[in-house]
Design goal:
By secondary structure, this protein is an alpha/beta fold. It has helices at residues 13-23, 42-53, 86-94, 117-124, 140-150, and strands at 3-8, 28-31, 72-80, 83-84, 102-109, 129-134.
Length: 152
């Protein structure tokens, strides 16, 4: 069974999940802005948090993706201002056809709180399991346990 992780990461949380799954033989697709965020600052946090609240679309860097090549899709996303990060949301808006294949979404939050993101996610992926991960970098064992339980 072909499984794929599609994720966006700016702080490296999603990269931790992708690295772990790569070690288990699963490929990944990392999303990014056309002009990537080099380092998140206080002002960028406010700016992108506001964009997330307003569900603004972002121009993504080019990527290759064919949903037909995969039986199951898993996704990962950071939480910005309690909502889905805008690059992740932009991908969902462009690819609504993936909804039946998405089994779970890993929502990464340093606080562990996902606020409105799970409700927002249900609009795009109503059947996907939502897995909240509190800071996968510092809670590595917990992340591995939750990801292993989710991706059989």
């Amino acid at each position: 069974m072909n499984k794929l992780l599609i994720y966006y990461s700016v702080a490296g949380y999603g990269d931790q999940i992708a690295d772990y799954l790569k070690g288990r033989g699963h490929p990944s697709l990392k999303l990014d802005f056309k002009k990537p965020i080099v380092k998140m600052s206080f002002f960028k946090t406010i700016r992108y948090g506001w964009r997330a609240i307003r569900e603004k679309s972002e121009e993504l860097a080019p990527y290759e993706f064919d949903a037909n090549k995969f039986d199951e899709i898993y996704m990962g996303c950071p939480i910005w201002a309690g909502r889905l990060a805008t690059p992740f949301l932009s991908f969902l808006q462009v690819h609504p056809e993936i909804a039946p294949k998405v089994k779970a979404v890993f929502l990464c939050s340093a606080s562990g709180k996902i606020k409105k993101a799970d409700e927002q996610l249900k609009r795009f992926l109503p059947h996907a399991e939502v897995v909240s991960l509190a800071s996968p970098k510092s809670c590595l064992d917990e992340m591995k346990r939750k990801v292993s339980q989710t991706i059989l």
